[in-house]
Model the fold of this input.
Amino acid sequence: MKLSELDDTQLLILIKNGNELAFNQLYHIYWKRLFSYTLNILNDKGLAEDVVHEIFTNIWIKRETLNISSFENYLFVSAKNRSISLLRKVQFTELDDTIITSLTFAPEIDQTTNSSDLKYIIEHATKALPNRCRDIFYMSRFQHYTNLEIANYFKISQRTVENQLYLALKHLKTAINRSLVWLVTFYFFR
Done:
């Protein structure tokens, strides 16, 4: 019997036994519909792709312990829940936008550090960022691309660019504040 002739339940049994072809079959049956459904919720192609990928990755990882009675229902409920959860994480308010644009380094830093210290701190902190986040930060802050230009370059939404910049700046501010405490201690108590 061909995989294309099997129903979801039969394919799930094969997946539980590690059959990658059965997994690929279910993926190809559902991914377009699941992506469209998720895209309608998130209104962001990149985020929708991430959600669909995460759902199928988790199915494969947990394949041996999954107990799914209706695969289609499982997929769409998972997509809805993950999308809503993601929206809660990345939803911005006007206050968030104000924070993003006003995030600057504290004036005390200039008083206690020289430019090479600050450059080292920033370089070290940006290396800890995920690759895409780091690339977006460099394009925005050092190459002076607009959020729209960055979104077009990566084929993502402007909101995703804003989210990545927010995360990068938050990380940098935390790293600089930690380093500032060390530098102040070093400069004043040596």
Observations:
- The domain at 3-90 is CATH 1.10.1740.10 (Rna Polymerase Sigma Factor; Chain: A).
- Residues 158-188 form the longest helix (31 residues).
- The chain has two domains: 3-90, 94-188.
